[in-house]
Design brief:
The structure holds two protein chains of two kinds.
Chain A lengths: L3 E4 L2 E4 L5 E7 L5 E8 L3 E10 L2 E4 L6 E7 L2 E6 L8 E8 L8 E2 L3 E5 L1
Parallel strand pairs in A: 2-11
Antiparallel strand pairs in A: 1-3, 3-8, 4-5, 4-9, 5-6, 7-8, 9-10, 9-11
Chain B lengths: L3 E2 L4 E5 L4 E3 L2 E2 L5 E8 L6 E6 L5 E3 L5 E5 L4 E6 L8 E9 L6 E2 L3 E6 L1
Parallel strand pairs in B: 2-12
Antiparallel strand pairs in B: 1-4, 3-9, 5-6, 5-10, 7-8, 8-9, 10-11, 10-12
Chain lengths: 113, 113
């Protein structure tokens, strides 16, 4: 089983719909992140959380919200999806030590039509 | 804000050719540096990382990278690429006290057999 699991893996939704992407991890890490990947733009940080009671905006948080339901779960919501939110979304985790890498989920490919 | 620049957006090589992918970052303080690889349809995986010590870092699959502090660079190299190295490569930096990973835009590498 993957250490970082994202559901769904693929989703097509209509403009204006609310959608939730879920992420769960078995790494035991406190830190969780949501990134968006677009061709030619790399990974951009949407939101991050350092523990259950901590939520922080990243560089492109507009149009998104998150919920950290537990140490192991971090959900990303699009309140009213729009076509330019079509992208590949990755959840990642890390522990607080500066020399450790991030661990990524398999990604959710979201298409807004 | 921290920025990470990957100057080569697309690289096409033949098998056995040598590879060097550039990465520069803007932060002047303590940094931790990473290279990730994303094979087609997969999530990001760590290739190698630097946090202290020998500035020449060796990673998996024959990759290495050199940290040159004076140039704010962390270039990725491989002496002889293989078809299986076809992937997207991301440089990432963690800076200062927050240690939130910031990613470059990625370099797409295609290796022809």
């Amino acid at each position: 089983d993957a250490d970082v699991t994202q559901t769904p893996r693929n989703r097509i939704t209509k403009t204006g719909k609310r959608i939730m992407l879920e992420c769960s991890q078995t790494k035991g890490h406190d830190r969780m992140y949501w990134y968006r990947q677009d061709p030619g733009l790399g990974l951009r940080l949407i939101y991050y959380s350092f523990d259950v009671k901590d939520i922080n905006k990243g560089e492109i948080s507009d149009g998104y919200s998150v919920s950290r339901q537990a140490q192991a779960k971090f959900s990303l919501s699009l309140e009213s999806a729009i076509p330019n939110q079509t992208a590949l979304y990755f959840c990642a985790t890390s522990d607080p030590r500066r020399d450790t890498e991030a661990f990524f989920g398999q990604g959710t490919r979201l298409t807004v039509v | 804000a921290q920025s990470v620049s990957q100057h080569n957006h697309h690289v096409i090589l033949s098998e056995a050719a040598s590879l060097e992918l550039g990465c520069n970052y803007s932060y002047g303080g303590t940094v931790n540096l990473f290279w990730y690889v994303q094979y087609p349809g997969q999530h990001l995986q760590l290739l190698l990382k630097y946090f202290s010590g020998d500035p020449l870092v060796k990673g998996i699959k024959g990759f290495e990278a050199e940290f040159i502090k004076s140039k704010f660079s962390f270039n990725l190299r491989k002496p002889s690429v293989q078809w299986s190295d076809t992937a997207e490569y991301f440089c990432a930096v963690k800076e200062g006290g927050s240690y939130i990973p910031t990613f470059g835009r990625g370099t797409s590498l295609i290796v022809h057999p």
